[in-house]
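Q: What structure does this chain adopt?
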Amino acid sequence: MEGYQSTYRVQLSGAFPFAAARAAVPYLADLGVSHLYTSPILRARSGSAHGYDVVDPTQVSPELGGEAGLRELVAELRDHGMGLVVDLVPNHMTTSVENPWWVETLRGGPGAEAARVFDIDWEAGGGKVRLPVLGAPLEQVAGEVRVEDGWVVYHDHRFPMAPGTDRLDQQHYELVDWRRAAVDLNYRRFFTVNELIGVRQEDPEVYRRTHATILRLVAEGLVDGVRVDHIDGLADPAAYLRRLAAAVPFVVVEKILEDGERLPDWPIAGTTGYEFLAVADGVLVDSSAAGAFAEGYRDLTGDDPDPATVALHCKRERLTRDFGAEVAGVARHLPGDPAANRAAVIELAARLPVYRTYVTATISETDRVVVGEAAALARGSLDAAAVAALDRLVGALLLEWPAPEAVRRFQQLSGPAMAKGVEDTALYRDTRLVARNEVGGDLGVFGRPVAELHQANAERETRWPQSMLATSTHDTKRGEDVRARLAVLSEHPDRWWPLATRWTGRLGTGVAPADALLLWQTMAGAWPLHRDRCLAYMEKAVREAGLHTTWTDPNPAYEQAVAALVERAYTDRELLAELEDLAAELAPAGRVKAAALALLRLTSPGIPDTYQGTETEQLDLVDPDNRHPVPFTGDDSLKFQVTRTTLRLRREHPELFGGYRPLDAPDHLVAFTRGNDHLAVVATRLTTPGRRPADAAGPVDLPPGPWHDLLSGTNHPGGPTPADQLLAALPHALLVRARPGSV
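A:
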């Protein structure tokens, strides 16, 4: 996209509508941002805090200011030379009476025109859609259900009645216990959220209906590009993206790539940047501490988990406990024994090393290998009947026999299984160093070599030069500044583990040591952290981990024990004094690492995205903690200086941000050039002199100069330059051959 140099992500809501975003535009323009990037703008459920619960994709959200408010925002952006990218949610809508298509579907059943929008298996429900809203089976709560003016009412829920009917059993839906959602639900959900129903974008008429408004906004020049939410939820992502890219000039997709996985050759700019986050985060972690952290974790918890085994077990658990209905939906479309089919579906999905395959009428060689290897691993865990069922499922995926519904449903299941099993479970179980526990990361890796970052950057410059680069999003497990501070712990294992062990032994009664360790890291990483924020985070974390309590079956005794531990921590003077001392040691080095992460994001090949407020330090935890209001003001921090200087340079001198060449440098640094050696970047990744490699004082092999450092204001002649000389003023350098007059 012309002029597309950077994005700045904001979270819209009734509390931060278009008018509030418009007020922030002058600040963002001064920062150097080229495009505002917003959460979804189409009509969502009333009071939505995020916009992903869409009820009407034909309207711009009235709560945000409607189309008039959007036009005013865009006018302000254009006045400042900026554009607009918006988040688009094609995969699902909300099962709400505010959703006119949902109301029409419930009233008219499978024959309703709107029914084609939703991914409902009417046959599996005997012509009805099951609605898991009751607190108990219907026979136990029948007295709480009433008919009122053509509606069935159950507490806050309302459901339209079919014309000419007056009884519950005459409707096109069946009200069932909410617990049945994991057993025999007959519509596709977004992950395990019962209120979000899958949309059939594979139907051209559904695509037309759901995209008419957003495509009109693009055609009118109000919207310059879109980020596609949960692309892996769609039946045929490639076909969907071909349609979308024909009308939208810039498209990125929320796609989580596993290590070694390549983005399919879709007609898009790239991903939203989690694969960059994983590698950039990794170079901030001292890999030489892997053994010390494994030993400390084993001594404290009695456990030395193999990350791949943990992930496998967590995926199996989630598939069995939470996705029973979806598993049955695949199994139902395979011949043979249903129980064996279900076992085969669970095991193959659990063994799949990526989020999903993309089998349609053809299968790529990549997918053929992925399926074959996963099947080989699955085979040893199944009995004879399930092995036969596995052969049937694999045969369908390899297109050896036709079972398109089984293939579609399996591919739409494996992504949620990976997301819930790994992102929302395994990442909360292995807590040895949670700086690594992030979306797109690999718990099997403790730190990453600089060479891996260089390789990834060079490949992105060649294949996906306009892919987004992210270090914080609304979905990250903790903010980049918290992760950067915790990465400092990897340079101080001898300081950290005695503290963590002593705190756990003295205060951790009644709580699993791994959960206590998570608490200590959360406090150290986000300190000063208000007690209420910490309590809310820990409750979510232990429920996600699912070992001692869960969202669907909470264990009050364990949750109270965790809350009591938090209370003890916040009132224990000895711990607080030690924590204050530790945080005071970690914070300065954490800020150096956070500024390095920002510099790498802002200068590596791709389009850097800055999540709201993260141009300054934001010690955020997981959502909703990371969706708080931000001030949209700068400060005197190095991170803000790096961000503003680099964003303005990108906007005013885009020619400096092509190409990519690594520079030889000491191993505690990351160094490269761009713009045909007219821009050089040097970032400090390891901050502790005693743990730096022997070559720490060695030279950075700069090309011939003269060079001017835009961060420190110093000049350098070029050629091999001692690192301590180059970075004498600041820990990072952003060098240009000749100082641009406008910077």
